């Protein structure tokens, strides 16, 4: 009799344990299944967004590198097509940044190109401001101009307008950057003095980050290029540290119709692998072009120093070839020449 009672008690305990385990495991399983389904949903959504953003360049894109093992280059093109300016096909580029990637060493070299740089534009067969290359020939014309300048092949491009930039920063919950001085600047709709920033390290939202990236009031195009590089680094750092899966949904929403690229979805995944596989050791080096102010027929241009262009060109070539490089040009902050703020030839700053 005692043995039967003992057996029944053991059976009851086993059933209770099973019920307890079931209560514990059920929500865990639901969470795992939910996360898996959501991750799958995000993957499909990401593929849809990238496919929608994909835009190849006719006559190019035949020989594509393998982003996991090959070195490659990307041209980032920032476009100001705010509704207040109503630019269409003749939109000028407001920011140009060329990046070369060494897949083995997990290193990146970045160089910003001042928008008023006086360069040869192949599609027009004449020299003009590099910002006009996009208005003349779109993405293809811009890529050909930058290739002509540095004598290297550009494999990929990413073109984003200001709305995408702001939305990405906001989706990340802001970015940590250093504001070099007190600043009053217009917002994305060109409302004057709408953005007010104080000097020092702080978290900026999308509108504030855009104002800092655009301004040239208190320094020059070279310094603006440096700020844009620092802002891009801050975005990369924040994006790579995001843990919440819902943030990726926000990032995909932010990209939406505001980005064009010739990176396929699989190549974009490889690019993410490139960053995440570096285990936090991704080395990003900034290079800075030097030059002087110049006027031609009363129009302001930035005349690039030929030696600076040649040495940075060689450094980018060596980087793409996987060679260690050192340059004689001082590419530190102190090496950049001074340039005052100037209006565009149509009066636009």
Main CATH class of the largest domain: Alpha Beta
Profile the largest sheet: 6 strands, mixed
Query: Low-confidence parts, pLDDT < 50 over ≥5 residues?
Result: 28-35, 84-88, 326-349
Question: What name does CATH use for the topology of the largest domain?
Answer: Aminopeptidase
| Coarse morphology | globular
Q: What is the annotated CATH architecture of the largest domain? A: 3-Layer(aba) Sandwich
Radius of gyration: 25 Å
N-to-C order of helices and strands: HEEEEEHEHEEEEHHHEHEEEH
Identify the CATH homologous superfamily of the largest domain: LCP protein
Total domain count:
2
Name the average pLDDT.
79
Please identify the structural class as seen in this structure: alpha+beta
Distance between the termini: 96 Å
Q: What percentage of residues falls in helices of 4 or more residues? A: 40-55%
Number of strands: 14
Strands of the biggest beta sheet: in what spatial order? 11-6-1-2-3-12
Instruction: Specify the number of helices.
Output: 8
Beta-strand proportion: 15-25%
Domain Cell envelope-related transcriptional attenuator: 92-240
Pfam families: LytR_cpsA_psr
Family: Belongs to the LytR/CpsA/Psr (LCP) family.
Region (Disordered): 321-349
């Amino acid at each position: 009799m005692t043995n039967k009672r003992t057996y029944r008690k053991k059976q009851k305990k086993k059933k209770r344990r099973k019920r307890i385990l079931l209560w514990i495991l059920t929500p865990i399983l639901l969470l795992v299944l939910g996360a898996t389904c959501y991750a799958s949903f995000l993957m499909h959504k990401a593929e849809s967004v990238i496919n929608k953003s994909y835009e190849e360049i006719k006559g190019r894109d035949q020989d594509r590198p393998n982003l996991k093992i090959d070195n490659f280059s990307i041209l980032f093109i920032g476009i100001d097509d705010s509704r207040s300016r109503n630019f269409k096909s003749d939109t000028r580029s407001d920011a140009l940044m060329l990046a070369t990637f060494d897949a083995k060493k997990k290193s990146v070299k970045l160089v910003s190109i001042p928008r008023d740089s006086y360069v040869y534009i192949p599609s027009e067969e004449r020299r003009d401001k590099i910002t006009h290359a996009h208005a003349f020939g779109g993405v293809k014309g811009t890529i050909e101009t930058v290739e002509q300048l540095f004598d290297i092949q550009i494999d990929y491009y990413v073109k984003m307008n200001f709305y995408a930039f702001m939305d990405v920063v906001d989706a990340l919950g802001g970015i940590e950057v250093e504001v070099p001085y007190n600043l009053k600047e217009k917002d994305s709709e060109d409302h004057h003095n709408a953005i007010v920033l104080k000097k020092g390290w702080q978290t900026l939202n999308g509108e504030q980050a855009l104002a800092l990236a655009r301004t040239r009031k208190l320094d020059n195009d070279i310094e603006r290029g440096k700020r844009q590089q620092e802002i891009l680094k801050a975005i990369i750092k924040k994006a790579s540290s995001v843990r919440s899966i819902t943030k990726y949904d926000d990032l995909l929403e932010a990209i939406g119709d505001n980005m064009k690229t010739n990176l396929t979805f699989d190549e974009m995944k490889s690019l993410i692998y490139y960053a995440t596989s570096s285990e936090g050791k991704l080395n990003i080096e900034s290079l800075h072009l030097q030059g002087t102010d110049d006027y031609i027929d009363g129009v302001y241009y930035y005349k690039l120093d030929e030696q600076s262009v040649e040495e940075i060109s060689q450094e980018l070539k060596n980087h793409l070839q996987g060679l260690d490089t050192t340059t004689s040009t001082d590419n530190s902050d102190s090496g950049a020449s001074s340039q005052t703020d100037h209006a565009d030839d149509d009066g636009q700053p």
